[in-house]
Amino acid sequence: MLAEYWLIQPVESGHLMSASEPTMSRVTEYGVKPLGPDTWDAFAELVERHNGVWGGCWCLAFHPKYPEKGQSVAGNRALKQRLVDEDLTHHAVVFDGERAVGWCQYGAPEELPRIYHRKEYEAGMSEPPDYRLTCFFIDRDYRRRGVSAVALQGALDLIAEMGGGVVEAYPQDTQGEKVSASFLYNGTRSLFEQAGFEYDRPKGKNHCVMRITVKPG
Predict the structure, then answer these.
(1) For residue 137, what is the domain's CATH number?
(2) Residue 129: which residues within 8 A CB-CB, separation 6 or more?
(3) Is there a domain that residue 112 lies in?
(4) pLDDT of 66-116, one tens digit each?
(5) Can you give the C-alpha Rg of the chain in angstroms?
């Protein structure tokens, strides 16, 4: 599966504009593919370009506590590849040509159980979601170029292909304040609102629970 996404961007500001707005500059085309054995090499190259991501975690933080998890960067890499081969980890990977430039991680709660503020989260939960979106990562050379929005939509499209259902996310609720990108691995509330998510409740000090129902694709 290769979905194509077009982003219209003004040259000076770098903010997204809709296709109906009169002043256009350049069109950026991204593709989205699911993480799998055929996209592993491109995904691994993206991670390795950034020193294993967040101290060498290889995007394993939200997965269950496997014995080899966290023992070493090499061990994390091998574990991630095994989970990919066994279809136990899911990402919508954004491509610029053949180069992977970002991702949104998604999966069932059993696949991604280790969310933050879990006791508070479960105390306010009425029913569990079918899927969670837990983190984004964007290549340092592609930040503030709309890749997160593409990754988010790609994840929702892949979930639709898998049968759809209730999808939850736990973004930072910035309340309009500027926040360092290092704290935005869950995305922002505004990003999810633009994708059609609805606010459900707060979680932790600066995060919230947002939900959307995705129809089967």
Answers:
(1) 3.40.630.30
(2) 109, 165, 166, 167, 168, 211
(3) yes
(4) 998 988 999 999 999 999 999 999 999 999 999 999 999 999 999 999 999
(5) 17
> In the numeric block, which tokens belong to residue 106?
């998604």
Q: How far apart are CA 19 and CA 171, in angstroms?
A: 27
Output the pTM of the full model.
0.85
Domain-embedded: residue 9 = no
- Domain boundaries, position 102: 30-214
Q: Is 54 exposed, middle or buried (0-12, 13-18, 19+ CB in 10 A)?
A: middle
pLDDT digits (tens, 9 = 90+) for 120-151: 999 999 899 999 999 999 999 999 899 999 99
Count of domains in the chain? 1
Provide CB contacts within 8 A for 90, sequence distance 6+.
34, 35, 105, 106, 107, 111, 158
